[in-house]
Amino acid sequence: PKEVIDKKMSSVSSNQFIAAQRQRLELLRQATERERSLLSGTRQPLEAAARSGPVASIVHERPVASPPFSTLHHASESYAAVRAALIIREEELRRQAAALAEEDEELRAEEAKVDHRLHAAEEAKRDLLSTLIALQYRDTELKERSEALDEEEASIRNQSDEVKQRLREINHQKDLLERDFVERQSKLSLSKKKVADRQAEQSKVIQRLKQQLNEQEDRVRSLETQYMSRVRAADDFLALHVAFYVYVALRLNSR
């Protein structure tokens, strides 16, 4: 379904976004660590210079030779400004590291959500595969039933052909009997009794043949009705089969 496909696409996009964010956080973390290392390396020489330079008398308690006041004041202000800037920058780096840690935690939570959505998408995929297998099995059954109906239709057609052939034979026999009846009637015209007997006998035969013919015609009409009914059922079944095939094809294309 389209919802599952959209979910899978959004999951892939989320994974790419999380990977990019994680890489960005790692680069920021490394840059922060390098800057803190540089700050630490800069701070130590400054403190060492303060201990050994003009402001050593301020940092250490042991007495040293006092430099001029202007030099001492300028060095003290420079050292204090640099130290304050370093402390401010170090505090900024701590806040940035805390923000990065918080963002990393949010990314981990988002990654867990994406994993859950991917798991749901895999479950939906397995369900779709199960449905597809069931539809393929159903399609096989429908094909087998269609073949059975084709065989039955062929059998009905053969029976219909046999009935038609039998009907033609009966009609031929009827024609022969009618001609024979005329011949017998002309031959028996010399004797009324014979003619009457023959006519009665022929009438019975004709009546019986007509009855048989009517029965055969009824059977033919019944078979034709059954044949048309089964043909319509076969057409409906074939239409249903085509609909199922189109439905399965659409489901496969949508995947």
The low-pLDDT segments are 1-12, 49-75
Overall mean pLDDT stands at 73
Q: Tell me the major beta sheet.
A: none
Shape call? rod-shaped
What fraction, in percent, of the residue positions are helical? over 70%
Sketch the topology as an H/E string, one letter per element.
HHHH
Which range does the strand content fall in?
under 5%
The total of beta strands comes to 0
Q: What's the number of domains? A: 2
Radius of gyration: 53 Å
Helical stretch tally? 4
- SSE class: mainly alpha
In angstroms, what separates the terminal alpha carbons?
A: 7 Å
Could you explain the architecture of this structure?
- The protein has 255 residues and is mostly helical.
- It is 93% helix and 0% strand.
- The chain has four helices and no strands.
- It has helices at 2-52, 56-59, 69-187, 192-254.
- Helix 1 packs antiparallel against helix 3 (69-187).
- The relative contact order is 0.08.
Using brief descriptors, characterize the structure shown.
255 residues; mainly alpha; 4 helices; disordered N terminus
Short description:
The protein is mostly helical. It is 93% helix and 0% strand. It has helices at 2-52, 56-59, 69-187, 192-254.
